[in-house]
Structures are given as structure tokens and as C-alpha cells.
């Protein structure tokens, strides 16, 4: 990662822990952070856990990138930081955001979880901000680990100490479960037991999401905010989908992660090829630059019907972020976007398609009669 980015990097067991480290280091408690309303709710809770107030930004409706020109000047003047999302790998306009952050003397923090291998302005995503956070759960498929990349290499030792204070000691049971997980998942897929496995997890109370967004639990969340900044009060929200997010990795986990990271360029090439097919479809944007997107946001009129059609073909649609965070959380927990319509339109119509399954996804959408989304504003 140092070679790819030209920046000092430190390993973290999860992107969310790396983001918490960055927010705590660069933002004063009580500060306000501009972020995308079409984002994972876990990141929203990480911002709250860092003792900060999320401020939802206006978006470009075609790809949900941040719209710096749509942010009112009085909002800019009250910010402590800007947090990009690079949703599905579509880069936010980092050059413009970096310029505005420099103007107001605030840090730019880049969430590059979906954007490893992406570029903007001739530079890798993650090289414009004071810090950037990458996930190895996404393109590599490691389902663990990430990196915090730093503009100032002199900060590495300080952030290593801060990271280590937050880590939990390794657990033999967790390492064994991680080592066996790929084999268990392969067996479930081979036996066509995916639906049964999910039903079993719900029955055992192991599934923490019944809907796209996790339950907000506003009463409990208000109580947790009294203990911010700190991860412990927010653990029920921040741990969702990754209970080992603070776990010190064992040797087996690191070996597998290193092996998968070594295949990254081959994986990125496959993502780029699938992205090209999806963007050229009736539901894509053929004018968009072809990048190795983690997911390609196809824009579909009846997104729920399309998801159901894909499910019948055993294609699971994940990484949906609907409704936008300001509608999900409300003003008790976030400042709403000054122009929320674009985010609502995108969240309602975006169908994140896996570029590695592009041919199957397109076959299913054509057979189901899925229609492209109407233009924003219609």
C-alpha cells in the first residue's frame, strides 16, 4: 500500500476502526463533519462515537458523489472536517474538496473502502486528504483488515499507539472461525443452502439487520452519545456485520489477507471489465469513466422488483444505503442536507451490481423487463 499510494500506511483490523482513529486524531470533540447521506450506517455511528456531529452533504444524483458547490458557505465555515465516501468506487471530487478544505483550514479525510485502485485527477483515491482509510474486505475478499494512510509520515508512531490502545487481544476461536469460513461458505453455496443459512441466523438471533438500515434505537443512541467520544457506548451499532473489528489479527488471518492482496491487480482488472459491461447497459451511464468499481450503481425504476428477480437467480444484492442518513436518523442526530432530493432519488433507484457477475446480472434484468430509472426530477 505504501508503494501504491506513496504514503505511510499502518494496518488496522477494519476500515471502521481506522476511520475512528482518523476522526479522533484530526477532529475536536463536538466538531461538525460533512459526509454523504448515502453511506453505510456503521460509518455514521463511527462519526457519532468520535464525539462529532454528522452534517449531510448535497450529492450528484447520477453517482452520489459529494457536490462541493451545493454546500452553503455558512455550512463550510462551521465544519471541522470533510469525510468522503467514494461510493461503490466512484471517486468524490477530491481535488475540489481538498482546495475548499485548505481554504477553511480543516482536514479532508477520505473513506476509500470501496475505492482501492481508483483514481481521480490522475492520482490514486486516498492521496488528497490528510488521511485515508482502505478496506481489505471489499475488492480483495479478505473479509477483514484495512489500512490507514497518512499524508504526514511523522504521525505514524502516534497513531500506532492510539490503534494499539483500542485493539482487543487475539482469540484462538475467532482465528479458527476465520480460517474455516471460506470452506463453510463454499459448502453452503454448493449445496444451495444460502436461504436456509440466512433463515437459521435470523432464528438464532445472529442476523442484526432485518432491513437495509440497522435499527436506530434512538433512546439508546441518545444515552450512548452522553459517553462520546468512545467506542464502548456505541459498540451495539459499530460492531454490526463485523464483530471482530477491534481484534488483533493472528498469523493465519494475516497470511490469507496478504495472499489475497497480492492478487489485487488481477482482481481490479476483472472489476474494470465487468464495470464496462454494466455501464454500457440501459441501466448504466455509458458516459461515465470506466474504473474498477467495487459495485456499479445501476439505476432502475422499480429497484425492489429487480432485487427480487436477482434473488431468484441466486444473486444477492448488498451494499444498499436507503433511506439517506438524514431521513434515517433525523435532526436529533444529524444536520440534514440542504438539498436532499438527489440523495433520495439515488437511494431509491440505485442497484449496486457486482461487476464480477455482470453477465448474469444483465441477463436477469433483461429477462425481468426492468426499466431504467426516470431522470432525476421527473
Can you describe what's shown?
Mean pLDDT is 93; it is low at 201-206. With 378 residues, the chain is α/β, with parallel strands linked by helices. It is globular. Helix 2 packs parallel to helix 3. 41% of the residues lie in helices and 11% in strands. The strands form three sheets. It has a seven-stranded mixed β-sheet with strand order 1-9-8-5-4-2-3, with helices on both faces. Strands 6-7 form a two-stranded antiparallel sheet. A two-stranded antiparallel sheet has the order 10-11. The protein has a domain at 264-368: Alpha-Beta Complex (Aspartate Aminotransferase, domain 1). The N and C termini lie far apart (44 Å).
Q: Output the helix-strand order.
A: HEHEHEHEHEEEEEHHHHHHHEHHHEH
pLDDT averaged over residues: 93
Return the structural class. alpha/beta
Strand order of the largest sheet: 1-9-8-5-4-2-3
Can you give the helix content as a percent range? 40-55%
Number of strands: 11
Report the major sheet.
Answer: 7 strands, mixed
CATH hierarchy class name of one domain: Alpha Beta
Amino- and carboxy-terminal Cα gap: 44 Å
Named CATH topology of one domain: Aspartate Aminotransferase, domain 1
Can you tell me the residue ranges where pLDDT is under 50 for at least 5 consecutive residues?
201-206
Please, how many helices? Answer: 16
What general outline do the C-alpha atoms trace? globular
* CATH architectural designation of one domain: Alpha-Beta Complex
* Whole-angstrom Rg: 20 Å
Strand content: 5-15%
